[in-house]
Design a protein that fits this description.
Layout lengths: L40 E7 L6 H10 L3 E7 L2 H14 L6 E5 L28 H4 L13 E13 H6 L6 H7 L3 H14 L4 E3 L2 H10 L18 H15 L11 H9 L2 E7 H10 L7 E5 L7 E8 L7 H11 L2 H11 L12 H4 L11 H10 L10 H16 L5 H16 L1
Parallel strand pairs: 1-2, 1-3, 5-6
Antiparallel strand pairs: 3-8, 4-6, 4-7, 4-8
Length: 428
């Protein structure tokens, strides 16, 4: 459902010296018990996109001269499939493995194959339940993932296009105007009527994902049952999105495609459901649009999530202790604060949401929007939603259905029925 976390685009603004005093000192003995702090080891880190860690690795290695960090990046699907295969085989996994929020439920039954962070001084309450709960073992006794970022949602919008359509541009007024999803869709109808060459949003699937992400339940219930057809919130979100598509509001641009990037650059759509990391993506892919963007509250409940991940250490690692220390350091408050300000990844550590460096941050590219406060408020509104092992795959099935409607290849009912059939094939 949140496959778009594949690429964590970065705002590269320079490292500076912000971390100079936050590095860990010393490394201790290796997890095998036979090494010393002077033993030369290589820690491998497997990711599925750019997490913005390269500068941090350099800092960490400078403070730990006996450690070399090797990062491997593969695409989203292959990364998670490879990890499952390596866990099954008992070999081949990296020392540190990233797991995305839409995939983490599929690893819960194998929690015993990862190091339990609760045995290494980690307090799960540094995160909200919505973040730590998905990365716990079914019995709740093991925490196998430490949180990286969260994808709490806001709404990024083009002030120049709003002005051309006669809509308010002030972010507070926009938040009030678009307070509900019905208001958002109805305003979109007005927008496309006045600016026929510009669409209201980028893709129906991204709107659907934001709506369903705010529901108490999505595709699974608390017992792990698939509720695609029995949870009314799913079909309601689908129907709302279809209403917007039929009104001509969607640009029908697949996320992370070249056409999507062009859409940003040429102003082909006016709004996008926007997690914090999206600010970095827009900055990198449409630098000439600086000052044309602003950020408002997401319609609906103010919550919802798009992306966010965990770092896990497989027990097959030969350097478990060192891998755990690296994972803990990468997700420590100092590093998460830096990643937010420099790369756009919003910290999952809830203690940071009230700290001036985060809560008081403004983004000059987005008209000096108070991004820290907006995304802090959004993160505070995140509620735990049960996730199942195939949540991402089911979300893709619904997303593909919406694409088929956008492209005129299927009616809304035909597309929905196919999504249901595809989901049944996926889940057995």
């Amino acid at each position: 459902m949140r496959v778009a976390a594949i690429g964590r685009p970065a705002l590269v603004l320079g490292l500076g010296a912000v971390l100079a005093g936050s590095l860990l000192a010393g490394c201790g003995k290796s997890s095998s018990g036979s090494g010393t702090s002077n033993e030369k080891i290589t820690l491998t880190v497997n990711l599925f996109g750019d997490f913005g860690y390269k500068d941090l690795y350099a800092q960490y290695q400078q403070a730990h001269p006996n450690i070399t960090i090797k990062e491997n990046v593969t695409d989203y699907g292959a990364h998670h499939k490879n990890l499952q295969a390596h866990l099954l085989a008992g070999a081949g996994a990296a020392d540190v493995e990233a797991i995305e929020i839409g995939q983490v439920a599929g690893f819960r039954p194998q929690a015993a194959k990862f190091v339990n962070y609760l045995n290494h001084g980690v307090d799960k309450n540094q995160w909200t339940e919505a973040k730590w709960q998905p990365a716990t073992s079914p019995d709740g006794k093991s925490l196998f993932g430490v949180g990286t970022d969260v994808g709490g949602l806001a709404l990024c919008y083009r002030t120049d296009l709003f002005k051309a359509a006669g809509l308010p541009t002030d972010r507070d007024q926009v938040s009030t105007l678009l307070s509900s999803w019905n208001a958002y869709i109805n305003t979109g109808k007005q927008f496309v009527a006045k600016t026929p060459n510009v669409k209201w949003f980028d893709a129906g699937s991204n709107v659907f994902n934001a709506i369903i992400a705010q529901a108490p339940q999505g595709f699974y219930d608390e017992q792990g049952n698939v509720v695609l057809t029995t949870n009314p919130a799913v079909k309601q979100a689908y129907d709302q999105t279809i209403t917007a598509i039929k009104a001509g509001e969607s640009a029908a641009l697949a996320a992370f495609s070249p056409q999507w990037n062009t859409g940003f650059q040429k102003g082909q759509f006016a709004t996008i459901t926007c997690p914090s990391w999206m600010m970095g993506y827009i900055h990198d892919n449409a630098p000439d649009t600086k000052g044309s963007w602003d950020v408002a509250r997401i319609p609906g409940t103010g919550g919802g999530n798009w992306g966010g991940s965990y770092l896990a250490v497989p027990t097959q690692s030969k350097h478990q202790k060192e891998a755990v220390e690296l994972a803990k350091w990468l997700t420590a408050p100092e590093q998460e604060t830096w990643l937010f300000k420099e790369k756009g990844n919003f910290p999952s550590d809830q203690t940071l949401w009230s700290q001036p460096d985060v809560a008081g941050y403004t983004n000059p590219f987005f008209n000096n929007a108070p991004a820290g406060k907006i995304f802090s408020d959004s993160a505070k509104n995140l509620k735990y939603q049960p996730l199942g092992p195939h949540a991402g795959d089911i979300g893709n099935a619904v997303g593909n259905a919406l694409v088929s409607v956008e492209q005129g290849k299927a009616s809304p009912d035909e597309a929905w029925n196919k999504a249901v059939a595809d989901a049944k094939n996926i889940t057995g």
